[in-house]
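re the bet — no i am not wrong, look at it urself. input seq straight from the record:
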Amino acid sequence: MKIDYREEKVFNELVLKSLYDDVGWTAYTENMSTLIAGFKNSLAVISAWDHDKLIGLIRVVGDGKTIIYIQDLLVLPAYQNRGLGSDLLVKVLLNYKDVRQKILLTNDEPKVRAFYEKQLFSSCDQGDLVCFAKIT
């Protein structure tokens, strides 16, 4: 399988909706115009393609100098556990290697926690940091 990685912020709405829905992130697809605008306003988006099929992506917001926030990291279930999520994350971390704060917020599930710990992220519940979030 040859994966094509692309850096672009504009996607076909149906293609993007299909990816988010397939991974179960349907709260994002309830208002596609907001999601599309979020993509356009993102610092970076790297997507993974199997021929013409969008199979994963990572989206970054922030200033790109002092902080980045990894907003989304999605891989279609049929393509998970093949290293695609790691590849996408590594590409972002290399692009922003000089940025001190690299932050993300995600579900606290054992597989998710293990994935990010493998990538050398530290959970804020273990250490000197605290994380606050207000999600409406």
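see?? The two ends are 40 Å apart (CA to CA). told u. also The chain has one domain: 4-103. so pay up
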